[in-house]
């Protein structure tokens, strides 16, 4: 036992260094691990993992927790062998001292926790060392877990509610923005339509103006043509006296175009030839 004890102390010191970083493991994490062994205090253990798991599940042994260096509200029970704090431990049957599961597993190499063994109690040196897992402590601990779980659920619910409200607010703002954009677009389209109509109207007016101008020009030309024809007819009906024709021609030549002038000149020449013949 003596050699075992000193060995344990050395191992305990070594492991203390590594566990210090891990001391802030939460209840929730411990719960997630389903109270399964983490073996943080001693690097080796003689028991098989399956056997330990079984004993913990059958509530013959306390769950194994990541140990705390200092007592907290939850990790309030000190194991007097390893001096770590736990939320719950086993209890020696002989002298009713707390003992953590990892320490128990080091002292007793095999067997059933609540059955007498050949080992001695490390405190009262009583033979047939055995431990019992304290139900009332377990219940207390489970209640705390439940409470902390409830607290978590409540917080989660509140967070969900808050994010839902946020989401709703966001949706509201989004639909507002979309409506505004649609309105602007509609207005722009309406304005565009109005502009288009205005341009069409202007184009039509311009087209009408040009048409009117053509009509006027055509009428003018027709009038001019008519006037010229009348003059030609007047000349044709006149006596074929070359002198009179020439006078007539000269008096009209200024307002006639070239074709008409030539036509008239031919008449004059014809009339002169006829007279000479
Ligand atoms: Zn211990
Ligand atoms: Zn004892």
From TrEMBL:
Coiled coil: 153-223
Positions of region (Disordered): 1-25
Coiled coil as UniProt keyword: yes
Gene Ontology terms: cellular component: cytoplasm
Keyword Coiled coil: yes
Domain of life: Eukaryota
Bilayer-spanning residue ranges: none
Key words, A-Z: Coiled coil
Protein name per UniProt: Protein sip5
Taxonomic lineage of the native organism: Eukaryota, Metamonada, Anaeramoebidae, Anaeramoeba
């Amino acid at each position: 036992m003596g050699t075992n004890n000193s060995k344990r102390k050395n191992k305990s010191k070594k492991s203390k260094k590594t566990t210090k970083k891990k001391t802030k493991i939460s209840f929730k994490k411990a719960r997630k691990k389903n109270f399964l062994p983490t073996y943080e205090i001693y690097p080796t253990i003689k028991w098989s993992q399956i056997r330990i798991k079984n004993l913990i599940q059958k509530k013959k042994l306390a769950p194994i927790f990541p140990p705390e260096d200092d007592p907290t509200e939850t990790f309030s029970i000190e194991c007097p062998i390893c001096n770590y704090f736990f939320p719950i431990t086993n209890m020696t049957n002989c002298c009713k001292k707390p003992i953590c599961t990892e320490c128990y597993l080091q002292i007793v190499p095999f067997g059933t926790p609540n059955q007498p063994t050949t080992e001695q109690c490390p405190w009262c040196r009583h033979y047939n060392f055995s431990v019992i897992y304290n139900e009332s402590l377990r219940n207390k601990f489970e209640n705390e877990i439940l409470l902390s779980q409830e607290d978590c659920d409540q917080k989660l619910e509140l967070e969900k509610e808050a994010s839902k409200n946020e989401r709703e607010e966001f949706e509201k703002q989004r639909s507002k923005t979309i409506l505004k954009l649609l309105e602007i677009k509609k207005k722009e389209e309406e304005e565009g339509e109005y502009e288009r109509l205005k341009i069409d109207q202007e184009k039509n007016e311009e087209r009408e103006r040009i048409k009117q101008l053509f009509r006027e020009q055509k009428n003018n030309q027709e009038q001019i043509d008519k006037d010229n024809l009348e003059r030609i007819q007047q000349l044709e009906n006149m006596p074929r006296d070359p002198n009179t024709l020439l006078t007539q021609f000269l008096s009209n030549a200024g307002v006639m175009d070239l074709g008409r002038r030539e036509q008239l000149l031919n008449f004059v020449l014809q009339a002169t030839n006829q007279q000479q013949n």
